[in-house]
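re: ur question from yesterday

yeah so i grabbed the chain u mentioned. its 283 aa long if i counted rite. heres the sequnce exactly as i have it in my notes:
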Amino acid sequence: MNDLIQKAEVLLEALPYIQRFRSSTFVVKYGGSFMDSPDEKVRSGVAADIVFLEACGINPVVVHGGGKAITKAMEKAGIQATFVKGMRVTDDATMKVVEDVLFNVTNRDIVEMIQKLGGKARSFNGRDVFKCRQLDPDLGYVGEVTEVVVEQVRKCLRASVTPVISPIGLGEDGHAYNINADVAAAKLAMAIGARRLVFLSDVPGLMRDPSQPATLISHLDVKDVPALKATGVVDKGMIPKVDSAVEAVHAGVHRVHFVDGRVPHSVLLEIFTDKGVGTEVMR
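ran it thru and got these structure tokens back, copy pasting raw so excuse formatting
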């Protein structure tokens, strides 16, 4: 009986959050090593959270990455992966692999997991959502988002269907471009007026000392970001995430969250509990 009462208390703790967020739009950037786990339960954990959000009357939108799967596919095709400043140099052959993996494999896998769990989802090739231009000639077909086309995404949300979008953009030259998934998620959140943006990755959040989980920064005001950059707390792969978070908050997204996707149901723990489990960025 005590276990049942405890479960009821957990539901009651979540109740005010469910009431507050009903009809809101949440963008979830789906990425991390859990996506490549051989354990289907681990792979589908975030999908279950997405379906829970749907059931609570929240409108989730998924933007996903796929870096490790892309690298494996490139190795299989005999293509050497090259990175400059943390970004994949993308020639024509690489772009074909990127688009095939992101849209035909990763995207459809996420859609199938959501549907298998009783949710409703639609697959989107990012070409139909993100317009872009070349970011840097040295990077090849890597795009900078110039426009987000939201009409079809909004249509899905009105029908209570979760859009699942690959981070691919259509360039001004008609060619497909590879887009940083964190940046794509933030641009989409701003364009559709999302209330929350959640970045899932392989770290617990933003930590003052990456080797010490106890130094996790639970709440971060955007005005404090420059100082954290200057001291090296925000460094390397966290820079595009934090920069995207700051831009999103300034554009009207209420909160941005950095959450460890390896923790079971981390999205629900961050959104529907008083303490949360990651870093919340706000103004």
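noticed a couple things. Residues 92-116 form the longest helix (25 residues). also Residues 21-282 form a domain with the Carbamate kinase fold (CATH 3.40.1160.10).
anyway ttyl
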